[in-house]
Amino acid sequence: MSEIWARENPGVGLPYKLSSDGKTKVLKDIVLRGHNAIFECNGGCNCSHTCMTRLVQYGRTLPLAIFRTEDDRGFGVRCSQDIRKGQFIDTYSGEVITLADSEARERAAVRLYGERAHLEHSVYTFSLDKFDDDNGDNEYLLENRYVIDGQYYGGPTRFINHSCMPNVKNMCVSFNNYDPSFYHLAFFALRDIPAGEELTWDYTGICDYEQRQPVSQKLAKARGGRGECKCHTDKCRYWIFPSS
Known about the structure:
By secondary structure, the chain is of the alpha+beta class. The chain has helices spanning 2-8, 29-33, 99-113, 116-124, 139-143, 217-223, and strands spanning 16-18, 25-27, 38-39, 64-68, 75-79, 88-91, 95-98, 125-127, 146-149, 161-162, 168-174, 184-189, 198-201, 225-228, 239-242.
């Protein structure tokens, strides 16, 4: 797997490094800023557990807590320890189902609960389409499309709220297989996060808030979208999923 990573990320080296404490593995800044998938070493490699291409496969080590927010955003997630920039937090888990099953669930939910079910479906499901080509003509991926559905079953990360200025980013990570239709979704810290601060990520997956200029809430609302955002940050887009 390390050979795959090196081939697809020339000049980057291994994806992880040791933080300033000399103990904690963190994602390199250049990888954290990018959008490439991460390929970790696997059981077929001769390296040890200290290899800088092994991290997500060992699972979560941080103590996460689910709590009730005080501003009508439902539940949220925080950590009782300081988190370093680039540190692995946890993966997104849920039921792994086919795209057809996911679409059938969404249609059934809309019949029962109305249009608001579309938003809930978008918030809790991840389509594993990272490796789809631009033309959408990869027959294998089209026939083997999977979705991770965390709406009813999953881990603590299903409760991470949206923010237009997030402190966490979601990355695609593959290990112990090289099947482009199935991989892991891992959360990494975008910056140092003090203990007790709520963890948030951008549900659109864009993470462009550093370059994006603030927009008035009136103008942002007029542009339209789905799901009113309640992050109340300086660069709030008003919509969780803006139309443009």
